[in-house]
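pasting Arginine--tRNA ligase for the record, 614 residues
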Amino acid sequence: MPDKIEELVRAALAAAQAAGELPEFEVGDLGFERPADSGNGDWTSTVALRSAKLAHRSPAQIAAVIVRRLDHDASVERVVVAGPGFINFYLAAASANEVFRTVRDQGRSYGRSNVGAGQKVQVEFVSANPVGPLHVGHGRWAALGDSLCRVLEHAGYDVEREYYINDHGSQMDVFGHSISKRYLQLFEVMGERACTLDEARAALLADREAYVADEADERPQTHPLTNAFNEDLGDNAYGGDYIVDLAVRFAESDARRWLAVAEDERMAEFRERAYHWMLESIRDTCHDARCDFDVWFSERSLYEKGPSGISAVDRALARLDELGHLYRDEAGALWFRSTDFGDDKDRVLIKTNGDYTYFASDVAYHWDKFQRVDHVIDIWGADHHGYIQRVSSACEALGYPTQFEVLLGQLVNLLRDGHPVRMSKRKGTMVGFDELLREVGTDATRYTLVSKSSNQMIDFDIERVKRQDNTNPVYYVQYAHARICSILRRGAGVSAEEAAELGMDEVSRRAVGDDYDLSLLTEPAEAALARELSEFGALVESCARDRAPFRLTHYAEELAGEFHSFYAVCQVLPGKGRPLDQELSHARLAAADATRRVLALTLEMIGVSAPQSM
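structre below
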């Protein structure tokens, strides 16, 4: 509809200029937008305000001339000049209501656009070290990143989801040593207590539980095994329960095989095998969260030598050197002149001892990305804010000054009935994302984690999110969808079981029929519902443009609210003692079905299901 109105306005402007009522000038954007207050029309144009200087007339005079020259169109009921020169368009009911038919005709394609023009965009998110299970913070990046990808796809981008596996560096050795020590302790306990492996596992876990409970370390005698674990590894260890469970797996599969082996050999074996176990666990957790990646990129691969003996890191650094952006200091360290690109200091790539820095990996990794895609979006935790400039500088130096962007995400405060859930990195008591998914459910978890802008902290109250009432936003929205499905089933005369077999699109076809008169929908609540549905396409574009999928949750709640208001005042089906004109019933069923489809589509874009019954 805005396209049609724009044609009318451009034709009116041309006619006024041809008649000498306005001077010749050109305006590119006519400034069409939705008024915040529906009392100001369905659409408004600021063309008169935008062209005042060009025409040397007041906006009100320009607006009056344009309105006078507008051709009559049946879709527009009236046009009003308001304020300093706004041109407000009020659509005829039949025209405004056509959105119901459009939604039903287009189905899951409704709201699609080509603003992305097929641009190949890669979104890299989650990217946790494969040395432990994903925690709740990682879960936020999973929900945010995947939802953003779904939005971008609907807006016409060619999207690639990528997980960067941080499997190179000292943390991998720490991981291996941690499992090795727990493995040795299992056999130590079995020998000292003459117990089974399961009993030894229980002893280690009980000891660790006592360590966690002893917050100030005032009762070391209650957790000697964990104390020994920390002392042997110099407090540089991964201490979660999952490390004990990994050690048990080795004890079960390999028995005593690794007891007499040198520590470095045992560590290397445990590191490599457990790494793959953890990575598989991470994949499973992401899948359970409805977040599947197209590419799992290993940091290690950047250091693998090809047939020529050159690694990807070597090639990237050679490219920077070729471009004149590297230098060596007196001690022999290799530096990148990042200050040439706005960084506050130059960055070291290879230390004096020959070790590569983590930044060297990032340089090579992002250069590799740009060989595959047109644009890169990284989602990082807010604690990485200081890292943005150096990576941006490297991308610019390599020839990609505008193709790299970072979204920063704030943390998640996990609560239970308003009280903080205790977590300690040192004690290894982080809450696993998989645990949260099991307790709360994927729908409520994803909805809640997407519900705020990435730069806002989220208070995730487990008990509140689990509530099955209208105080819980995800329940409120899903209930609206289920309620519409129930109405359509009754309209079609089918049971829930039959509807599950037929599919709701077929159920709605039977309920509504193929021919319905939308001009019968003249109630304010019907107009409000049509208006809300017509805003979906612009919403998707704004979510894609601003990287803001959280707006979808707000929209879903507003749409659900509009439907509940509509249903409260507009009878949809005839009932006992409540007759209803059949044609009006079909039109209202069509409006309800269009709402169902957009609710389902909105929920799908944030990775949440749309239940047919609740």
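The longest strand covers residues 158-165.
The domain at 1-91 is CATH 3.30.1360.70 (Gyrase A; domain 2).
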